[in-house]
Amino acid sequence: MAVTSPQRAQNSKSELQGVGGMAFTELWERFSFYGLQSILAFYLLDALSQGGLALPAAAAVGITGAYGGAVYLAQLLGAWAGERLVSPHRLVLGGGIVIALGHIVLAVAPGLLGLGTGLVLIVLGTGALKTNITSIVGFVLASESAAKKDAGFSYFYMAINTGAVLGPLTTGLAQNQWGFHIGFGLAAVGMVIALIQYVRSARFLPPHAGQVSNPLPAAALRKALCIAVAAIVVIALAALSGLLRAERLSMIVTVGTLCTAAAYFTFILRSGNVTCFERRRVRSYIPLFLGASLYFGLLFAKFTAISLLVESRVDLSIGDWSFPVGWITMISSASGVAMLPVGAAIWKKMGARQPKAGAKFAIGLVQIGLGFAFILAISALFDGTTIPFPYIVVFMFIMGSSEIFVGPIGLSLATQIAPRAFTAQMVAINFLTLALGSSLSGLLGQYFTAVSNNTYFLTLALGAIAAGLSLYALRRPIHRSLYAGIEV
Q1: Is 453 within 8 Å of 305 (Cβ atoms)?
Q2: How far is residue 24's CA from residue 197's CA, in Å, rounded to a whole number?
Q3: Disulfide-capable partner of 107 in 37, 184, 251, 288 (CB 3.0 to 4.6 Å)?
């Protein structure tokens, strides 16, 4: 039966309300996540008299990077659960509740025990929520063309970055004025608002959101439970034996993420449920996966190495007032928010003429490399002295504005090229770029503590630019396979 104009208008309205509701929910979830992450490294670094935990620099950036990596790594389990155990809708709701509890624990429980408990709850809750809410957006936009999906996901990504601005803005100010635990409490408030918004917008979701697409048989469920118990035991034994030292956490998460990604790609590529075209697309995505992982490792250095730089070499005093440290990362996120509507409009206007994913990723890598080249020049110019604050603002703008070439494009690409049998898992693999990037940022932060500032910035600038140029040179063969059999 043909779809009439009124029906098309109603469908478009429902799609708009569905994407808008998920975007607003994600805005507040990211508010809580980035609100915490913007002050986490400083909480670990600051002296006890300042309300911090006074950890060594290498341990502080190791925990920060590992936490970010674990948050995204957990999303593989959430994606699997959303297809085999519980509907995406219920996982988003349950995950949001667990995240809120984690932030509440951080707000009221002092010391390392409160920190560890709160972070674990946030990791588990975000694992359940993040990929499933993105999959729901993919369900809503399923009938749209690739170009319109890019635009839709750009607006969704703009909501993510809006939350990434508002979170540090409020928690950073609260921490600056009243202490870290008040900042953590505001992150909890943000997550409660996300839950309220999600419940209100749930009626606009498509039927797929409330269904388990591939339920797990009872025998397989018992096996999965045994594996989960064994994993918990292994982690507990590693913690008791001292293997999970703070300085090692980022390396452990990085290795774990690489192994998980390799296993996942191998499983999908060897599956009999994947067609020839789907297999070609997944295989050609691997270099983009690595490029995006490197990109996010460099971007998330703002939570680790750049936090150390700010702590040691940047004067945040403005008269009698101190610029909140949590606002430093906000500058990068605000730049992304400002540029994403511009990028979405450009991609929509260009349509099929716009650069494809490989070229966009390459541009993002080169731009962030140029950002590190800029801060290298500033660091050398003010060698041995305090770096003026405005230069950090420029550096953060260069970093943040580069996200339009990688972040929303990766989200959209994952839903476009995903094999029909592994839709949610492909979205989760895309989020593994964030996991790998976060844990890599922890390792880069530890590298920052071992070399001079100028050596550090030179290494990152050259590495990012070389990677971007290499990816651009390979873009044509990548694209031939990446878009095989789909409309672009």
Answers
A1: no
A2: 7
A3: 184
